[in-house]
């Protein structure tokens, strides 16, 4: 039995197992299974590899998209550029790292872009944020990271002034805030400063309408969740695992 899976922690919010099981059933793929590898420590990947002898590939979610890099034998150029991996193919004992988040984000993000969306705020600094940064840079959209801790290169939430919010009309949530079951949580941005010129994109897809998106929608902003991104990157993962 060919084995695939998802590595992350926690995985209570993940749709991946259900998605691939349904895909296998619909497409008559009888020789494949998809498992959840819910581990808080990345070192557990050694145990997974030792136990799952038929494992041919796995996808990676929070919080391991950066820490997985030290376990990879080869990486794609995109992974090298951005320093994050969300898809591993196992071939002849080697772990080869790819990033399909970039494809999923760009294809799902681009349709709602408007000419005035020239600058963006990236909420969070993890592996998912690296994919968003990669695509904003590719599309020529200037950006700033936002996090709770101040560094030379980022803003804090307290620094999101009326001037900043007027200038940065794209806001992408790359934090897990609002993810099921903690659906009442949301990033601490000044929602009252949002307008119909803003575009809010949330990488969270469960629930479909997070508090982050709902609060933006109330201000007239365009909103998009991460569901389409999930579907696109999942299919890209499948292509990689079957090359």
UniProtKB/TrEMBL annotation:
Listed InterPro entries: Aminoacid_DH-like_N_sf, NAD(P)-bd_dom_sf, Shikimate_DH-bd_N, Shikimate_DH_fam
GO biological process, one term: shikimate metabolic process
Organism of this sequence: Filimonas lacunae
GO cellular component assignments: cytosol
PANTHER family: BIFUNCTIONAL 3-DEHYDROQUINATE DEHYDRATASE_SHIKIMATE DEHYDROGENASE, CHLOROPLASTIC, SHIKIMATE DEHYDROGENASE
Pathway involvement of the protein, from the record: Metabolic intermediate biosynthesis; chorismate biosynthesis; chorismate from D-erythrose 4-phosphate and phosphoenolpyruvate: step 4/7
Gene3D superfamilies referenced in this protein's UniProt entry, alphabetically: Leucine Dehydrogenase, chain A, domain 1, NAD(P)-binding Rossmann-like Domain
Keyword check for Oxidoreductase: yes
Protein name: Shikimate dehydrogenase
GO molecular function, one term: shikimate 3-dehydrogenase (NADP+) activity
Record's keyword terms, sorted: Amino-acid biosynthesis, Aromatic amino acid biosynthesis, Oxidoreductase
Residue ranges of every copy of the Shikimate dehydrogenase substrate binding N-terminal domain listed in the record: 6-88
